[in-house]
Amino acid sequence: MENIIGLLVALPLLGAAVLLCGGRRLDRTGHWLGTILAASSFVVGAVLFADMLGRSGDDRTLHQFLFSWIPVGGFRADVAFQLDQLSMTFVLLITGVGTLIHIYSIGYMEHDERRRRFFGYLNLFLAAMVLLVIADNYLLLYVGWEGVGLASYLLIGFWQHKPSAATAAKKAFIVNRVGDMGLSIAIMLMFTTFGTFAFGPVLKSAGDASEGTLTAIGLMLLLAACGKSAQVPLQSWLGDAMEGPTPVSALIHAATMVTAGVYLITRSGAIFNGAPDAQLAVVTVGAVTLLFGAIVGCAKDDIKKALAGSTMSQIGYMILAAGLGPIGYVFAIMHLVTHGFFKAGLFLGAGSVMHGMNDEVDMRKFGGLRKYMPITYVTFGLGYLAIIGFPGLSGFWSKDKIIEAAFAKGGTEGWILGAAALLGAAITAYYMTRVMLLTFFGEKRWQPTPSPDEPSAEPAADSAGGGEMPHPHESPKSMTVPMIVLAFGSVFAGGLFSLNDSFLHWLEPVTGHSHGHSPLSALTVTLATMAVLVVGVAIAWAQYGRKPVPVTAPRGSLLTRAARRDLLQDDFNHVALVTPGQYLTRGLVYLDHSVVDGVVNGTAAAFGGLSGRMRKLQNGYARSYAVSMFGGAAILIAATLLMRAV
Amino acid sequence: MNPVNYLYLAALLFSIGAAGVLIRRNAIVVFMCVELMLNACNLAFVTFSRMHGNLDGQIIAFFTMVVAAAEVVVGLAIIVMIFRSRHSASVDDASLMKL
Amino acid sequence: MSFPLLTATAVVPALGAIATAAVPAAKRTAAKWLALLFSLATLALAALVAVRFEPGGDRYQLTESRSWIADFGVRYELGVDGIAVALIALTAVLVPFVILAGWHDADPLEGKEPNRRWRPTQGFFALILMVEAMVVISFEATDVFLFYIFFEAMLIPMYFLIGGFGDRAHAAGDDEAAKQRSYAAVKFLLYNLAGGLIMLAAVIGLFVVTSDQLGSGTFSLQEIVRARGAGELTMDATTERLLFLGFFFAFAVKAPLWPLHTWLPNAMGESTAPVAVLITAVVDKVGTFAMLRFCLQLFPEASKWATPVIVVLALISIIYGALLAVGQRDIKRLVAYASISHFGFIVLGIFAMTTQGQSGATLYMVNHGISTAALMLVAGFLISRRGSRLIADYGGVQKVAPVLAGTFLVGGLATLSLPGLAPFVSEFLVLVGTFSRYPAAGIVATLGIVLAALYVLVLYQRTMTGPVKESVRAMPDLRIRELAVVGPLIALLLVLGVYPKPLTDIVNPAVQQTMSDVHQKDPKPELEAAK
């Protein structure tokens, strides 16, 4: 069975290679090829899953060794895969949601002339993401890690003719590179500490290493996770990444890639368990980000950016849970999976709305869409209920557990983390209700779309045209079906996972699990969560449901304005990094030219000047030569006399 | 008469010659001044010969005269050639190594 | 005596140079094909060298040895180890692509008909082959003097290549460009001559030391290393250090290491893209190769003594080169500064004195050669279309020439060491190798990977994305010949990125040898050391 693990990566990789090198011949069939290969990767995953279920909990890990990749002295990196329950969970999520989004994209990207390439990039992403989760060592994981970064770069910047898209893509890649730096330093530290960076030996002997080393490795891994999962302080790229086509936002920047940081921390659990300081850093980052993302999400009028803030916040929950150690690992992954369903569904819904509204993204210009797009409304609504944690739906089960686990951390820390998580839940309820109300309820606030200067490559709706009022309509089947499937996931996945704690038993052999001692009973936590949920929804309804919403955003309070600017993250980066960096490079360019080069050119000029002066002595005038002869003779005689005198 | 006086005379003549070489522009005059210097040397040689009582100095004086004569032959020829082509015998005009 | 394969590998391109130069003025195309043919023959011979070389065998293989200048103990001694094989292969692979990429770079300008005395096309290709011959023999020489001669001699054809052939766009009677070019060529020559002269002094010093102690002077690397090992030849610390510095200076200029780097941006900026590739991907490698072969083996103690300073200089090169690349406005100069950053990595790997560092540095030389060739040649194609080297003159190329943009991106991604492409393997090895001995240096060097992303992606964004600029609207996509250049290079990058084992198999034993020559062992992992 283990021999087919490689196919999980190979199939989409083949798709990417064929689609990207195949040329225009494949323009008409390419998207089908890409979708079929993604689906077959999912099938392979399902077969492996079925096989895995057939074995006992401790005997479920599969290994496949392909070839020795970089063997140099004691440094051995292999291309080898390890498929355990944790990887399996991810494989199914990635290929499953991935396939759905491939299908959705067939409709969404129908009018884009570069659709073939889009599918090539999507397949490349799938291959890299699967590689990331089934690698059996950190270096191969790093390959997938940067691979998804590349795919994300290509897809964010898919509409390259838009400068904003190109800039966003570049920003995403560079911020991610900062995180990658952390991952490579972590790998180096593992190599110098353990002499290897394969999961098996490193995690087994993690306990033997000193706490200082483990803390260093842990912090570096956290840096990596911050980059990929858009956590504070490397969060700034995610909002801009919404420049990409909406299916990309759904797949990469909501459901899968951005959760890679959670995977990394959970996978490296053994290291974090031995480094409480690193864990503290992880939970701090998680708690700060979950509030940060939520606050940003409240202020955005761009539907995708509001959802991006929400993604950031939800991943903050997962990171927080993963930082709690064995109490939280399972719940982090569980929330990750349920979030994968409902957030992908929400994004696809947003895409469907944009599709019907001439690519308008400003929620203030939506309103009353529930009658015109019933399927989108229902699926989006279910995703909304799931994310705010409405009892019984997926988000309820997973988020509740995380809040509980946060309190169970114990001590002051536990109270602070738990409070932050509760506050986050309230804000989540608020901003999601706001999104829902602005988009689907209230009166129509539609605006005619201005005719764009450049012919937009966004899939134009049938009625697209300069200055026309949008005619919202339901999206084609290829788009609604994936949304319906995801809505099912949003509704039932959480309950299914919690039935008999099945998800816990499934993952426990890999991640381990311990029950903390929560100062509050589970029921209290649940009730508190419900209470803040109601408060959040009520405030949103009071603001956006009861009274008409202005089309242009009011000025708002200081906090609102800061949140609209992503809590000044870009301004901070600009002042702290970009501007000094620009001065530095400019200064260095000047320095290189005038000082480093100047020294050499100066030496050359000095010789030139000297010889120019010397040349003047040879002027051709016989009498000046005579003077120098007399002078020389006089000096010689004087010297001789002087010598004799001495 | 004290032979040292001849040395003073030689030094005087040499100085006059040197000054002439440095100051004058006319090639012929410069030439004559060079001869003056040579002859001042000759005078000094002969004087020393007399003072030390051997013939070496006188022999060198003859050599000097022969060399000077040869030099005059070549040098005057060059000066004449330059004068013909440039209508001037100024040494400053002949500052380049070409006509 | 068996067939002198190594001599043949160097002689074939030299013969090719003569033959190409002799082609009559009118038959330009014939000269090009002839040059390509000879470069391919060299490639075949280099492949044969690689096949005949046994990775686990003697240190130096396929050796040839003849007396040459007996009075001074100079011998014609050739021999290759794994490192040399890898670099000869790199040279032999790249030159055909360089020739193919520069197919039209030396065509006579309009209105200037070539004649018997003025045959630029023939000259261009003959010079390229000449450089190849000299580089190959520098990689093969195990006699210090023999090496020195060709190390210096390759400056002559390079000087003419830089000074004589500029970008087509600037060529037509542009005095300013000609002046810049001549400045670049002279700068290149002076820098390298200065380095070479100092090395000459050290070479003579080495001869004095050996003739004092061994009775008869020798330049033979193997003989000197043997005698030092056997205790017949000893150097006091000062002598060894001075000689080391003499050698190292020359190699640091060639490499180029900060602050001796300023000739490279000029030389690469002013010459045509294929010549720029020749400089940075092939000729400069002789410098780093020689550090590994001569500096470390001849002067192990002095190498260790100088390591801290050299590591710092390498780190400065990495960061400084990358930062300057970010600040460039000229595509070619940007690639040049990126190369300076990469050479910093190579030197860092060599002087980290770990197996990973040195293997990584060797792989880095090969991979950097291929990746820079890919990036620079595509940049050259781009420049030849628009006639400008300035980044600001481009924009939106992706829309009109997607294949060109795609290959440019792949070249750029290779330059920023994306995993899956060859440079990642070498860069990571260098980083790990450095980190395991000097953690702080490893971390600083890691900053280089962030900066690399910055300069590559900024370049790509400004030239390829955004609205299509009017000046590039009619830009044609890559032609067949150009695809034939870039395609195989990209394929090589992929293959060596996914399966570098054939290369590491060849390189590892040689690196082990070098490590034992300098009496160094890899640091043990912390846990193992604790036991």
Automatic annotation (TrEMBL), chain A:
UniProt-listed InterPro entries: NADHpl_OxRdtase_5_subgr, ND/Mrp_TM, NU5C-like, Proton_antipo_N
PANTHER family, alphabetized: NADH-UBIQUINONE OXIDOREDUCTASE CHAIN 5
Keyword line: Membrane, Transmembrane, Transmembrane helix
Domain spans labelled NADH-Ubiquinone oxidoreductase (complex I) chain 5 N-terminal: 69-119
Pfam families: Proton_antipo_M, Proton_antipo_N
Region (Disordered): 448-476
Start and end residues of each NADH:quinone oxidoreductase/Mrp antiporter transmembrane domain: 135-417
Transmembrane segments: 31-50, 87-106, 118-135, 181-203, 209-227, 248-266, 278-299, 375-394, 414-432, 479-499, 519-542, 624-643
Gene behind this protein: nuoL
Keyword set includes Transmembrane: yes
Bilayer topology annotation: Multi-pass membrane protein
Protein name: NADH-quinone oxidoreductase subunit L
Main localisation: membrane
Localization in the cell: Endomembrane system; Membrane
UniProtKB/TrEMBL annotation, chain B:
Membrane topology term: Multi-pass membrane protein
Transmembrane segments: 6-23, 28-48, 60-83
Organism: Streptomyces meridianus
EC numbers, comma separated: 7.1.1.-
InterPro entries: NADH_UbQ_OxRdtase_chain4L/K, NUOK/Mnh_C1-like
Keyword terms: Cell membrane, Membrane, NAD, Oxidoreductase, Quinone, Translocase, Transmembrane, Transmembrane helix, Transport
Subcellular location: Cell membrane; Membrane
Gene Ontology molecular function terms on file: oxidoreductase activity
Subunit structure: NDH-1 is composed of 14 different subunits. Subunits NuoA, H, J, K, L, M, N constitute the membrane sector of the complex.
Main EC class the enzyme belongs to: translocase
Annotated protein name in UniProt: NADH-quinone oxidoreductase subunit K
Signal peptide positions on this chain: none
Recorded catalytic activity of this chain's protein: a quinone + NADH + 5 H(+)(in) = a quinol + NAD(+) + 4 H(+)(out)
UniProt family annotation: Belongs to the complex I subunit 4L family.
Main location: membrane
A Pfam family it matches: Oxidored_q2
Superkingdom, natural source: Bacteria
Functional note: NDH-1 shuttles electrons from NADH, via FMN and iron-sulfur (Fe-S) centers, to quinones in the respiratory chain. The immediate electron acceptor for the enzyme in this species is believed to be a menaquinone. Couples the redox reaction to proton translocation (for every two electrons transferred, four hydrogen ions are translocated across the cytoplasmic membrane), and thus conserves the redox energy in a proton gradient.
Automatic annotation (TrEMBL), chain C:
Span of domain NADH:quinone oxidoreductase/Mrp antiporter transmembrane: 141-450
EC number: 1.6.5.11
Keyword Oxidoreductase: yes
Chief place of localization: membrane
Top-rank lineage group of the source organism: Bacteria
Pfam families cross-referenced by the UniProt entry: Proton_antipo_M
Localisation: Endomembrane system; Membrane
Chain segments annotated as transmembrane: 6-26, 33-53, 83-103, 123-139, 145-167, 188-209, 242-263, 275-299, 305-327, 334-355, 361-383, 403-426, 438-460, 480-499
InterPro entries, per the entry: NADH_Q_OxRdtase_chainM/4, NADH_UbQ_OxRdtase, ND/Mrp_TM
Family, per entry: Belongs to the complex I subunit 4 family.
Protein name, as recorded: NADH-quinone oxidoreductase subunit M
Organism, as annotated: Streptomyces meridianus
Phylogenetic classification of the source organism: Bacteria, Bacillati, Actinomycetota, Actinomycetes, Kitasatosporales
